[in-house]
Design goal:
Layout: H1 7-38, H2 41-47, H3 53-110, H4 128-158, H5 165-198, H6 202-222, H7 236-249, H8 267-275, H9 294-301, H10 313-340, H11 345-351, E1 356-357, E2 360-361, H12 368-394, H13 402-429, H14 450-473, H15 480-509, H16 527-551, E3 554-557, E4 568-571
Helix pairs in contact: 1-4, 1-5, 1-6, 2-3, 3-4, 3-6, 3-15, 4-15, 5-6, 5-12, 5-14, 10-13, 10-14, 10-15, 10-16, 12-14, 13-14, 13-16, 14-15
Length: about 575
C-alpha cells in the first residue's frame, strides 16, 4: 500500500525532525565542553603544572586516548544492560561532574599565585594531592565523554525509520551533519574559550565548558518522550566469546558443504542464509560453533542447549561481520596518529611562531578554527559538488563508497604532514636558538600553519565521516554501538601510538649534547623530521589499506535501503 501523507503524519514528521535536531545540537554543546578542556590542555600542563613539551604532549595523547578507550565501556553497557538512551544520559552526567570538579580544583588550588597560567606568567609548584585531584577530574571527564560518544551517534541513527525511503536518505546525511555539529561546537571552544585560557583565565574557560555540558544534558533529557528506544540485545562479549569457545572445541568436526548441519533457532533463518547465498564464506572456521553434533541434537530436543557448545548461525555471522572489519580498522589507527598532532605538537609549534598582529595576540590553539572551517567547507563541497559529479561522470547510482573516501582521507593526511614539516623547516630558519621563554621566538607568522590545518580538516571529512558510516552500516543490529566504538577506539589507539612514537623518537634522537627532535626548546630540535616521519609511516599505511579495501566485500543487511553492487554481499541478521 502506498504511503499516504496526512496531517497527523506531517505533525509526527515535524516532531521527529525536532528531536533529531536536539541530538545534533546536544553533540555540538558536548563537544564545545570537551574541547574547552582538551584543546588547550597541553598549554595548561606546561604553564600551570610546569611540564616540558614532550611530557605534556605525551600526557595529552594518553588522556585523549583514554577518552576514546572508554568508548568500549560505553558500547558494552549500552548493548548489554542499559540501552543507548540510558547510557548516553548517565555518561553525560558523569561528564558534567568531571568538568565541575576540574573547574573547582583549578580555581581553588592550581591557579596559584593569582593571575598565573599565561605565556608570560607560569604557575608555581603544586602538592601531590592537588595534582592527583587534577588528574582525577580530567579522567572523570574522559570517562563521561568517552562512554557517551559511541552511543550518541548510534542513538541518533536509531531515530530514522529504515523502512521509510525519505528517512533512509536523511540518515545518510545525518552522519555528515552530526560531524559538522561536532566541529562547530569545537569552533567556539577553540576561539573564544581558547583566547581566555591562553590569557591565563583558565577557570572561566572550564566553568563555561561545565555550563555547556550541563545544558547539553538538559536538552538531551527534554527529548525523552519522543525518542525511539531500543532494548539491549544481551551481552555482546559473551555472545562473541561463546562462538570462539564453541568453534575451538569443535575444530576437528567435519562440516557439510551445504550447511545443513548448522543450528538456528528459526529454521527459516538458516535456509535464507544457505539457499540465497547470504552466508559469509570467509573465516569459515567459526561455522563449527553452529555445527550440531549427535549429543547436541538430543539436547536441542530437550531444550537444554549449552550456548558455549552450540551457537546459532546468526550469532556466528555477527562475529564474522566484526572480524571482517578489523583489517580496515587497524589501517585507520595511523590516520589518528596524524590527527592527534593537531591538539599537541601543532599547538606547541604555533606557540613558538610569531603570534601577534600589531598588539593583538593570537592563541596558538585557536588555529584549529581553520580545521573546523575546512570541515564545514568540505562537507558542503563533497555533498553538493564532488559526490554528484562522481555520480554523473561514472553513471553509477551512488557516489564514492565509504572505503574510497577513507583512502582519500589518508592521502590528504600525508599532504598535511608534509606541509607541517615544511613550515617547521622554515620556522627554524627564522628562530632564535637561545631563549628563556621560547614562545614567539620565531619571526615566521603563525598563519603559515593554515595549510596544515585546512588539509587535516579536509581529510577528516573523508576519513572520519566515512568511518562513522562504514562501521555503523557494516555492523549487525545487536552490535551497532560496538561499530561506532571501533571508530572512537581507532582515535584512542592513535593517541597511544603517537605517545609511543614521541617517546621512541626522543630516546633515539637525544644523544650527548643533541637535544632530540622534540625538546622543551623547539628551536634546538627537529620537529620537521618528526612530521616527515609521520608522512612516511602514513604512506606505508596507505599501501596496506588499499590492499585491505580491495579485498573487502560490502554486506547489505536486510531491511536497510541501499544499492547492491557486484562486490556486495547480502546478509540477514
Amino acid at each position: 500500500m502506498p504511503h499516504v501523507e496526512t496531517k497527523n503524519s506531517k505533525t509526527h514528521d515535524i516532531f521527529c525532525l525536532c528531536w533529531k535536531i536536539i541530538i545534533t545540537v546536544n553533540q555540538g554543546l558536548a563537544t564545545l565542553a570537551f574541547f574547552g578542556v582538551g584543546v588547550n590542555l597541553v598549554l595548561f600542563l606546561t604553564r600551570v603544572l610546569g611540564q616540558d613539551n614532550a611530557d605534556a604532549a605525551n600526557n595529552v595523547s594518553k588522556w585523549t586516548g583514554t577518552v576514546y578507550l572508554f568508548s568500549l565501556l560505553g558500547a558494552f553497557l549500552s548493548e548489554s544492560y542499559w540501552g543507548r538512551y540510558k547510557t548516553c544520559a548517565i555518561f553525560q552526567a558523569i561528564f558534567v561532574i568531571g568538568l565541575i570538579s576540574l573547574s573547582l580544583s583549578s580555581y581553588m588550588f592550581l591557579l596559584k599565585p593569582k593571575g598565573c597560567g599565561s605565556d608570560q606568567s607560569h604557575c608555581g609548584s603544586h602538592s601531590s594531592f592537588e595534582i592527583a585531584l587534577f588528574y582525577f577530574s580530567t579522567y572523570l571527564i574522559a570517562l563521561g565523554n568517552g562512554g557517551y560518544q559511541p552511543n550518541i551517534a548510534t542513538f541518533g541513527a536509531d531515530q530514522f525509520d529504515e523502512e521509510d525511503p525519505k528517512e533512509v536518505h536523511s540518515k545518510i546525511a545525518f552522519f555528515s551533519y552530526f560531524y559538522l555539529a561536532l566541529n562547530l561546537g569545537s569552533l567556539f571552544s577553540n576561539t573564544i574559550l581558547g583566547y581566555f585560557e591562553n590569557e591565563g583565565m583558565w577557570a572561566i574557560g572550564f566553568w563555561a565548558s561545565a555550563g555547556s555540558a550541563a545544558l547539553a544534558l538538559v536538552l538531551f533529557l527534554c527529548g525523552t518522550p519522543r525518542y525511539r528506544h531500543f532494548e539491549p540485545k544481551g551481552n555482546p562479549l559473551s555472545r562473541f566469546s561463546q562462538v570462539l569457545v564453541a568453534a575451538t572445541r569443535k575444530w576437528k568436526v567435519e562440516m557439510m558443504p551445504s550447511g545443513e548441519d548448522l543450528f538456528e533457532l528459526d529454521e527459516k533463518e538458516i535456509s535464507t542464509y544457505m539457499l540465497n547465498g547470504f552466508h559469509i564464506h570467509l573465516i569459515r572456521f567459526f561455522d563449527r560453533a553452529a555445527v550440531i553434533t549427535s549429543k547436541e541434537f538430543n539436547q536441542i530436543d530437550k531444550d537444554a542447549r549449552d550456548p558455549w557448545h552450540l551457537c546459532t548461525v546468526t550469532q556466528v555471522e555477527e562475529v564474522k561481520c566484526i572480524l571482517r572489519l578489523l583489517p580496515i580498522w587497524l589501517c585507520t589507527i595511523m590516520y589518528s596518529v596524524v590527527f592527534t598532532q593537531m591538539a599537541s605538537l601543532f599547538v606547541e609549534q604555533g606557540a613558538a611562531m610569531k603570534t601577534t598582529i600589531s598588539t593583538f595576540h593570537i592563541p596558538p590553539a585557536s588555529m584549529t578554527s581553520f580545521d573546523i572551517l575546512s570541515v564545514a567547507a568540505f562537507i558542503f563541497i563533497y555533498r553538493r559538488v564532488l559526490d554528484p559529479l562522481f555520480v554523473f561522470t561514472t553513471k553509477k547510482a551512488k557516489g564514492l563508497t565509504e572505503l574510497q573516501r577513507m583512502g582519500i582521507g589518508l592521502v590528504i593526511a600525508i599532504l598535511a604532514m608534509m606541509a607541517a614539516g615544511v613550515v617547521e623547516y622554515f620556522r627554524l630558519k627564522y628562530a632564535t636558538t637561545e631563549c628563556a621563554q621560547c614562545e614567539g621566538s620565531s619571526s615566521l607568522s603563525i598563519f603559515w600553519q593554515i595549510p596544515q590545518y585546512v588539509l587535516i580538516g579536509a581529510s577528516e571529512v573523508f576519513m572520519y565521516v566515512g568511518q562513522l558510516e562504514f562501521f555503523n552500516n557494516q555492523s549487525p543490529d545487536g552490535l551497532k554501538s560496538f561499530g561506532s566504538a571501533l571508530y572512537t577506539t581507532s582515535m584512542s589507539l592513535g593517541n597511544y601510538v603517537s605517545s609511543l612514537l614521541v617517546t621512541i623518537v626522543m630516546r633515539i634522537s637525544t644523544r650527548g649534547e643533541m637535544a632530540g627532535w622534540i625538546p622543551s626548546n623547539l628551536n634546538k630540535g627537529h620537529l620537521d623530521r618528526f612530521y616527515f616521519l609521520l608522512a612516511a609511516l602514513t604512506m606505508a599505511d596507505l599501501i596496506v589499506y588499499i590492499a585491505c579495501a580491495k579485498s573487502y566485500k560490502y554486506i547489505k543487511f536486510e531491511g536497510k535501503s541501499g544499492i547492491k553492487e557486484g562486490n556486495e554481499l547480502e546478509l540477514k541478521v
